[in-house]
Amino acid sequence: MESKYKIVIDTKGADKGAEVIVKGAIMALKEHSSLSVVLTGDKSFIEEKCTELNADFERIEIIDAPEEITNYDNPVSAIFEKSSSSMVKALDALAKRDDICGLITSGNTGALIAGSIRFLSGKDRIRPALAAVLPAEDGSFTCIVDTGATVDCSAAMLVQFAHLGNKFMRTMYAIDTPRIGLLSNGAEPTKGNAVVKETHALLKDDTSLNFVGNIEGNRALCGDCDVLVCDGFAGNQVLKVSEGMAKRMIKDVFKYAKQTGNQEILKLGQHLLGMYDLTSLGGAIILGVEKPVIKAHGCCDEISVVSISKMILNMAQNKAVFYNKNN
Amino acid sequence: MESKYKIVIDTKGADKGAEVIVKGAIMALKEHSSLSVVLTGDKSFIEEKCTELNADFERIEIIDAPEEITNYDNPVSAIFEKSSSSMVKALDALAKRDDICGLITSGNTGALIAGSIRFLSGKDRIRPALAAVLPAEDGSFTCIVDTGATVDCSAAMLVQFAHLGNKFMRTMYAIDTPRIGLLSNGAEPTKGNAVVKETHALLKDDTSLNFVGNIEGNRALCGDCDVLVCDGFAGNQVLKVSEGMAKRMIKDVFKYAKQTGNQEILKLGQHLLGMYDLTSLGGAIILGVEKPVIKAHGCCDEISVVSISKMILNMAQNKAVFYNKNN
After folding, report:
1. How far apart are CA B183 and CA B181, in angstroms?
2. Nearest to B233 among A185, A221, A256 (CB)
3. How far from A38 is each of A10, A24, A60, B74, B120, CA to CA, in Å?
4. B299 close to B17: Cβ distance less than 8 angstroms
5. How far is CA B310 from the centre of its chain?
6. What pTM was estimated for this model as a whole?
7. Residues of B in contact with A191 (CB under 8 A)
8. Tens of pLDDT, residues B209-218
9. Is residue A2 scored above 80 in pLDDT?
10. Most B CBs within 10 Å, among A241, A253, A279, to test the B interface
């Protein structure tokens, strides 16, 4: 069967090394016969791993990219200066080649945002947003836009984020009219900083959106909205404070299990770990770019790569692009 | 024994009604012989409750204030228009009378901030901050400044918050050189929105502070700093997202306890409830005002009133005022 969908995968940047990324790519190929991949990174290392793992070389292309953008690099200058890095090569391939439908990387987030602006923001030069989809308390999913791509936002940008999130949840989660919430420090429309108050008024008047009003931090993940609109600074807090609090409480549960020697509590700890491992839930999606780009968490493993590949396949099959209001 | 310290307590605004506030005030009087109180609210109701509870009327003064500022009122206009409300009467008494050393209220936070600016900001007209002290993972305490009083902040305001928090933790928690952290979306100095980056540079150069750098949301409550500086919008997210996540996970634990019928898990749930009931930990302190003002949570009970009274007593005994850098 011919491979119809090609994804470019940056093999560098993962905490666990390039091996988990290559492994994940090969697992994804085995799972999806319509898939082929372009891997950027150390060519000889990738070839070696692919041979070891009995990979189908017919569906693997390798672009040699010995350089790596690390977390110590300045994001913007790295994109311009490290032109032979695995991330820049991947972005360049995605931008230039029609046969590639999406990109996965676990590298430097800031560089990825800067690179997305450089290679994929098209003529509209929309400010990108990094959307994270998290499980809400009621079993639904909440898409937080933005979680850190654009930290200084105007009201117009936040409205754009609302539209991007709206389209994303409609297309990918089949929600007819996603409920759009606006993160604020109070439920009333009068609450918020200056930009949030201005955004509230704009969203309220936007008849193409199902705006449900302000959402406070304690209800951010209760399922009150499908899309939670916020600037990248505040959204980053929602994401990371949730993550930190979940980790802390799970530690408490394990500590209590140890103290009491109770096996059921140990099981509860495992159960919570599965539920609240927010970092393993696939990746963060860059909205506002011309082609699907997904950022895997730095601590991702092969399973993450498989699930993110599936997500991009899904986007490609749906011809889903979350670029602007109309496209 | 003569009562040396007088606190004015607004009896209106609590979710559980004025009764819990009056009860709490009477309990505090019984606990601290050096204390006397001024209660603002419905005079006849307060008198009735005090009689019922065998209160020591010699240490209770009542200021009749039939009006109430509710959460539906516009904070700023309420302070100017509802001049016979229990909150305005309390603020007015605190500002005008030398014999009153502090104020407790559980009423409308926005109105309290507006009222503090009107009655207690002195000639310097410093922007107030609402500080919340939360237990950190390592057993220490973290003072978050601001959690919602001032949502649009300049770098100069954030530096002022750092000094207010610094003085507060030094005086009230006996920490010689409190570690000052700056909330950001990344640990590196280059991370943050424009104001945060500017603040980072100012704090770094301020030799009178022990600045430990940026703190990310997931480490906000890990004990990496004693004072976490942030604007009121972001700080509100840290506070409320933590609260929401803790509530959610405790619910999960109780659900699991019910499913398994395991008594130890039920106990664990109670244990966590005690540890993470962030709302019952006293109140939020207004910094940047001339006299101690503490906001009790809307859902406070008599115990909260007792513990907040103790806190104000402590501040009064230490002559602690957190008004500006020098005072």
Report:
1. 6
2. A185
3. 8, 13, 6, 58, 65
4. no
5. 13
6. 0.92
7. 110
8. 999 999 999 9
9. no
10. A241
